[in-house]
Amino acid sequence: MNAHLQSWLGEQLQALRDQNLYKIPKILESPAGGRVQMNGKQVINLSSNNYLGLANHPKVREAALKAIDEWGVGAGAVRWIGGTMRIHDELEQRLAKFKQTEAVLVFTGGFTANSGAIPAVVTDKDVIISDELNHASIIDGVRLGSAKYKKSDGLVYAHKDMEALEKILQNTQSFQKRMIITDGVFSMDGDIAPLPAIVELAEKYDAFVMVDDAHASGVLGKNGAGTTSHFNLYGRVDIQLGTLSKALGVVGGYIAGSAALKDWLINRGRPYLFSTAHPPMVAAALIASLDIMENDPEPMQRLWDNTRWWKNALAEAGFDTMGSETPITPVYVGDEGAAQAMERALWEEGVYALAIVYPTVARGKARLRTMPSAAHTKEDLADALEAFKRVRDMMGSA
Q: Does the global pTM surpass 0.85?
C-alpha cells in the first residue's frame, strides 16, 4: 500500500465527515419492497426507485428463471462481437414499439446510455445546451464529447427558464448542430421539464432535443411510456433515454430514436462497443415487466394514488416538498448536518429516507428524498408520516 495515497484518502474522507457529506451504503437483506430488512432492522423503505413494485413481481421472477434454463447466465461477449442473443433483439423491438420510435438500443445502464449517446452525436462544430439541474450522467456524457457546453460559454440555462433557452438559441446559430438536453423528470426535485416549449423552440431555431426519461419511465405517459407520450410529442423528440432499473425493476438503460441513430450508436457508442451484453435473464425479466406495464394498469394507478396521498399528507403536516409533481418527493431541510441528523433519527423510528446533500444538490439545499411506490400500503405511508412528525418535533425542541 502506498503511504502517500492512503494518507491522502484518509484526509479526504475526514474532510467529507467534517462537512456532513460522508456517505456509506446500508445493506438490503430482503427483496425490494415497501417494508424491507436493512442492516438487521425492518424499515419502511422510502429511498427506492422501484416505482411499480416490479423488482420482485412473480411474473418477472418466473421469466428470469425460465431464461436461465434456456440461455444460461451470461451472454459471453460484447454485443457486436457475438453477445447479442435473440432475446436482446426481442427486448429492443418491444421497447421501440412501446416508445413508438423506429428503433431502440439497450445499454448496460442509464448512465452508460448517456455516456455513449451524447458524445457520439456531436462534434467540435456543435454546441450542447443544458438545463442547470440535469442529472450527473447527462453532465458526464456532455463532458466526454467535443462540443461546447460550459456554463461560462453561456450554454447552461436556468432551470426550466424558456426565455434563457431562447436567448442561447439566438446566440448560437453559427454552429453546425445544436442539441438541447434535459431531464424529463428532475431526479432531486421531482418536477417535470416543460418539454412542449423546449420542442417548439428547437423547431423554431433548427436544434434537436434529447430527453432523459429515467424517472418518467413507468411513471408518466401511456402505460408509463415517458414524457414524450405524456405531452403527445411523438416524432418531435429526436433522442429519448430510458432506464430499465427503476420502474421496470431490473437493470439497464436504452436510447430510443431513429433507425439511423441506432446504427450510429452500434458503431460509435463506446459503452456499447466495450461492454459485455446483459445476462439473458435480464432481457427476459424486462420483457415480462413490459408485459405488465402494457396490460395491467393497477400498479401505475397504485403508484399515483400513493403519491397523491403522501404529498397531501406531508403538505398538511407543514413539510415543504419543493413543488414536486411526481413520486419523487423531497422534504426540504437546507442544512446538510440537519438533513443527515434527520435521516438518522428517522432510521431509529423505522423509516429509511435518504438525506441528499452536496454535491448531488447545491450546498445549503439539502433535503430528505422520499419515494412512495406501488409497493407501499397506506399503512406504510401513514406510519412513515407519523415518524416524520415525531422527528421534526424532536429536532425542533433539541
A: yes
